[in-house]
Amino acid sequence: MNAPLLEIEDLHVTFSTRRGPVEAVRGVTLELRPGETLGLVGESGSGKSVTGFAATRLLDPSGRVTAGRIRFRGQDVTHASAEDFRNLNGAAMAMIFQNPRAALNPIRAIGQQIADAILAHKRMPKPQALAAALALLRAVQIRDPEARMSAYPHELSGGMCQRVMIAMAISCDPALLIADEPTTGLDVTTQKVVMDLLAAIAAARGMATILITHDLGLAARYCRRIVVMEQGRLVEEAEPETLFCDPRHPYTKRLVAASPTATSRVEDLALDDDHVPAAVLAKVANPPRAAGTPPLLEVRNISKRFDEGTAAVADFSLTMMAGECVGLVGESGSGKSTISRMICRLIDPTGGDIVFDGQSIGHIPARDFHRSPFRKDIQIVFQDPNDSLNPRYTAFDCIAHPLRRLCAMRDGNALSLRVAECARRVGLPEELLTRFPHQLSGGQKARVGIARAIACRPRLLVLDEPTAALDVSVQAVVLNLLDRLRREDNLAFLFVSHDLNVVRMMCDYTIVMRAGTIVERGESAALFAHPQNDYTSALVDAVPNFHWAGRRSETVPTSCE
Amino acid sequence: MSSATLRHTAWILRGNPLTAIAAIAAAMLALIALLGPSLVPFDPVASDVPLALRPPGAAHWAGTDQLGRDVFSRLVVATRLDLAIAVSAVSISFAIGAIVGSLCGYAGGRIDRYVGRFVDVLMAFPLFVLAMAMVAALGNRVENIVIATAIINLPFYIRFARAEVNIRRNLGWVEAARACGDSHLSVVLRFLLPNILPAMAVQVSLNLGWAILNAAGLSFIGLGVKAPTPEWGIMVAEGARFISTGRWWLVAFPGLALMLAVLTFNLLGDGLRDILDPRMRT
């Protein structure tokens, strides 16, 4: 048994804020052995990143370790300054961050940046450092590394940038690598490539890794041991299989239930005991579909070109019935957002037509569509709840805005009642209506955005990655909410997402997009179970589902039953 | 103002005493501008030659000038004119600049390019010389000082508003407003404009100081406001002739008034941003 590489003992970290001290980490104890891979899982505000920053002495100046001890290679580094720490440990600890593009210097070639990282820790002539940088680019499997040495970050994709970050992080052969949400914001297929690479490098170099992530599936796939954090406390520590099949702590149970897997159903996600059991509400059946009903929406061969360039969307067609939920899946650049905005009539298609409720709306210019009677029938919920609410509007005004504009309601009792009703339908406490967006949590903002979209009782709701910016437990509640609203109002959903598990759960029918064209379409269950197209199967494979984590043996159960 | 706004303002001012001082000074300036003529001990234009060029003393706190007029009274009375010129010039350039700039920033494309080049041309001139030329051409009147000052400030507002709108125009809430039935124009005027106001308020405050200096500068060189109207720039210009003979108070007091006014608005700027931005509240 070798000595632990990193020991954290009863760590407390406190931040001083305008509202007094806030304890972000309250007593975390963990241990990491050389070469081990540890997953640090938790939702936003759980203190997982702060723990990582405390270990690397990268805490924000307003944060302070108030109690506990951090030992690295047996040495107490709890109160070492960043300077001392660097002298003490050299480059033995490295960190990679969430947004790789922002972490790279935009005006310096990447080869130079890697060489800088090497020279910061080792004395060597510059050409030698550049040669080492080239070798590192090879190690992180960047294609054509000689040419990439002189490339700038903006010339590389997000996945490439993250590889460069990994190259910089491993440049001095660290004993410990802390990866803070290294693949958040990357496409699933890119995520898989980057994580596989990271795992291979760690294994080859005997490097210990702490993977900080909100994604239980990802942690399960790549880590031997997972630590779950909640509100600054460590609530459970276990191997992935145990954690998934036999979670002990109520929070872990909720988290595991809320993480969509390849087999879960919407109503299984939320275990919240303070909510009405979601399953009961969700049992309202889909209304029977009369044969020969005209479709609600017909999209006929629409295309979009921006500024005479290449087609962002080419020849996209879609038919939707009232109350139907269609999923639109694809990676960044697949044109799914462009399609959702064309259908919402926020931008004009270059060709083709959109027919809503039997009337052609594709030729009404987007700039005049606000006057169309169909404006209130087609509404949209945006991806990031943080930037989809006007910072100067209270939650009340946000929800009242479409009512004032589209339903011609005047300020007064009727409007207040209607807003309150919308808030109630989305489960937003009424006392929050007077708050400004920045005073609401992400989940609350998402609810305001949904309440705004359903306020005028639309018939088609476009959901543009409605839960991409939310924690899984919040996502579970929001998905349940959306599903319930759909059944109550016989709403049709166009559900745009990159998360295949979510789409599979929510949608009857799924369309897979790539580079502006449809690669595959069909009933969701069949499409995900037996993808016909290579790209679709690559997408499905890349989803980090925990029961695919069969690294140790093939006998890992595919589900917990 | 709601109580939350007041509480927030109080919080900002407590944490930032310099802003509080600037706010008090600005309020006093406004008060003096309003009530000035009824406060002063002497008629600011009445000359009393036997009392000419008296140094500061008990009767004449800031001394008297070459015609025996009370410098203090003239200073106080001048506040109204100087502030009025600055405020109206800045209001005009703010109103036009914010709207034109926002529309350009939102629309982009050809309009944006044309307006952008026009702004570039305007900024290529030495601005003070441009103002001089305009006042000289339009006629030596206070209105024309206001117009000239407004025009030379306009490019900054257009650029500023354009940039602020440009970074916001693709945010979710802008698209959401359109999905909620707002036209493009309404999105700019009712959504984007209010959101860039905090940032622009800073610009306005800084610009007020600058506009005061500009107006004073124009009258200093004999354009715009004419003697015997009390105005800080003219007072400095007239007093400059006597500085070599040791009559420092003729220049020093109007100069000080100018400096304090400019400083007040500059200091106010930063605090204003914090007060007006709802995101700074918790």
Name the descriptors.
heterodimer, A: 561 residues, alpha/beta, Rossmann fold, 6-stranded mixed beta sheet, 21 helices, globular, B: 282 residues, mainly alpha, MetI-like fold, 10 helices
Average residue pLDDT of chain A: 85
Main β-sheet of chain A: number of strands, strand sense, barrel status? 6 strands, mixed
Q: Which CATH class of chain B applies here?
A: Mainly Alpha
Number of strands of chain B: 0
Kindly identify the CATH topology of one domain in chain A.
Rossmann fold
Name the biggest interface: A-B, 32 and 20 residues
Distance between the first and last residues' Cα of chain A:
35 Å
Secondary-structure arrangement, i.e. CATH architecture of one domain in chain A: 3-Layer(aba) Sandwich
Q: Taking Cα atoms only, what radius of gyration of chain B do you get, to the nearest Å?
A: 22 Å
CATH class of one domain in chain A: Alpha Beta
Mean pLDDT, all residues of chain B: 87
Distance between the termini of chain B: 17 Å
| Strand numbers in spatial order across the main sheet of chain A | 6-7-8-3-9-10
Largest sheet features of chain B? none
Envelope shape of chain B: globular
**Overall strand count of chain A:** 20
Helix content of chain B: over 70%
What string gives the helices and strands of chain B in order? HHHHHHHHHH
Could you explain how this protein is built, in words?
The complex is a heterodimer of chains A (561) and B (282). Chain A contains 21 helices and 20 strands. Chain A is α/β, with parallel strands linked by helices. Among the domains of chain A are: 72 residues, no CATH class; 246 residues, P-loop containing nucleotide triphosphate hydrolases (Rossmann fold), CATH 3.40.50. In chain A, strand 7, helix 8 and strand 8 form a beta-alpha-beta unit. In chain A, helix 4 crosses helix 5, helix 5 crosses helix 7 and helix 11 crosses helix 18. The longest helix of chain A has 18 residues. Chain A is globular. By secondary structure, chain B is mainly alpha-helical. Chain B has a single domain, classed as MetI-like (MetI-like fold, Orthogonal Bundle), CATH 1.10.3720. Chain B starts with a helix and ends in a 6-residue tail after the last helix. The model of chain B has no long low-confidence stretch (mean pLDDT 87). At the A-B interface, strand 16, helix 15 and helix 17 of A face helix 7 and helix 8 of B.
